[in-house]
Specification:
155 residues, alpha+beta, Pnp Oxidase, Chain A, 6-stranded antiparallel β-barrel, 7 strands, disordered N terminus
């Protein structure tokens, strides 16, 4: 089901903003030698939901994978690891492309990230760390165990 009604789209955006505000971590999927590779990341999303931000060290598989293939997906969920999750949990898969932020927008995006993850300030400012932004193309939202919706993000 593709959401194209304005009211439903606004409700989905609110759901995403609430989820992203309350969750600190996500699973980032990249590829390594044409094989899937997953990583746990501390993330933040921009207010318009067009970008997801994270930081990684440059000397990691994650960084190398992102440079060789920037197509990624990010999974954010609110499961509590109990049976109620079948009814109540929400999982969101953000699909997009990742790029290292090096331009004039870096400082603003880094500050947005650090508002959520202030304890990572030293890590974020290390010369060995890189700020990445995922330009989200679409969100796939699953709730009530099998209710699937898609929200496309305008470029």
């Amino acid at each position: 089901m593709v959401i194209d009604l304005v009211e439903d789209e606004l409700q989905l955006k609110k759901l995403l903003k609430d989820l992203f505000k309350n969750q600190l971590f996500a699973s980032l999927a990249t590829q390594q030698h044409a094989r899937p590779y997953s990583n746990l990341i501390a993330f933040a999303a921009t207010q318009d939901l067009k970008d997801i931000l994270f930081i990684t060290r440059r000397q990691t598989h994650k960084y190398a994978n992102l440079l060789s293939n920037n197509s990624v997906s990010v999974l954010v969920d609110n499961r509590g690891n109990n049976d109620a999750d079948f009814r109540n949990a929400i999982a969101v898969n953000a699909v997009g492309t990742a790029e290292e932020v090096k331009d004039s927008k870096k400082e603003n995006l880094l500050q947005l990230y650090l508002v959520k993850h202030h304890s990572l300030e030293k890590f974020a400012h290390s010369p060995e760390s890189a700020l990445f932004r995922i330009k989200v193309k679409k969100y796939i939202i699953v709730r009530n165990f099998q209710e699937v919706m898609e929200l496309k993000v305008e470029g």
